[in-house]
């Protein structure tokens, strides 16, 4: 196999670099993430299923990887792009280098390309399908295959990452020298729809006193209501929310009957279940430094985000909903609430770790809703 590796985009833009991780070929929608750390959390976030992630920070991998920082049972990214992958893992918690980790899990990557040029290209022309290959020597043949890729719109990627069967979660938060600690006694029974749920969401729910049962995304509303939950959580997940009509229908059957909290894809699913519309963003929001304004208080939160679609707030305001948060970079809707029902959602990730913790209060808002319902 050649040490030369190619990245070819659908519009013909081509980059030549060196292999990173497993050798082979990977395809998907190429997007960029502006976070300076947290690459292991990004790799294991199921929301990135179907995507090749380019990190804008120039050196990635300097603190290695470890088992405690996994956000799911395995990495889900289709491919990984960095300017420079550190060969040295300099951290007392490190169990392996980034390159070793990617090879172990069969993730194909590329390094030593101009990630600034790639990012500028994606910002100007939008996220688009691409192929990374360390086995094909002719970029023209790669371009031909890239232009035949299906894209993300309308695809059901949730079915690829959701749980096979219901399960419960027991772990609490992480503490230095102690690891993951036991959570407080549960006060609320919560059913969490797994669209690609991150472990730290489950830890946060347990930390605020929720007894959590995770269910597959195809679970009907009637099955959830039969367990008599105090609340329902709608998780993050990959791809186009319109590609998951069965979940939209289930959520429609839960509205007004139980408190609901949605994050990221869960926010978009709520918008569609309410009768609204979603649309694809040009290059999405992926990073740990996005400013979001709370429209009720005027406060600004620095947030972690990972999504390529957004809810059109005008499509739901006449249906009893109102926007609660706005992205200060592009004005897109970052939160919704119903005026009468105990239902709210945010487009960003309040559980992000590592990342800003400005939005942790949202988990307490969920328990407050359940407390009022119980009272």
Structure, described:
The protein is 22% helix and 32% strand. With 375 residues, it is an alpha/beta fold. It folds into two domains: 5-146, 3-Layer(bba) Sandwich (Glucose Oxidase, domain 1), CATH 3.50.30; 158-374, 3-Layer(aba) Sandwich (Rossmann fold), CATH 3.40.50. β19 and β20 form a beta hairpin. α8 (245-252) crosses α9 (265-273). It is globular. The N and C termini lie far apart (66 Å). The model has no long low-confidence stretch (mean pLDDT 96).
CATH superfamily of the largest domain: Class I glutamine amidotransferase (GATase) domain
The Cα radius of gyration reads 20 Å
Widest sheet, order of strands: 10-14-13-15-16-21-20-19-17-18
Q: Which ranges are low-confidence, i.e. pLDDT below 50, for 5 or more consecutive residues?
A: none
If classified by CATH, what would the architecture of the largest domain be? 3-Layer(aba) Sandwich
Determine the fraction of residues in helical runs and give it as a percent range.
10-25%
CATH topology group of the largest domain = Rossmann fold
The profile of the biggest β sheet is: 10 strands, mixed
CATH class of the largest domain: Alpha Beta
The number of helical elements comes to 10
* Rough outline: globular
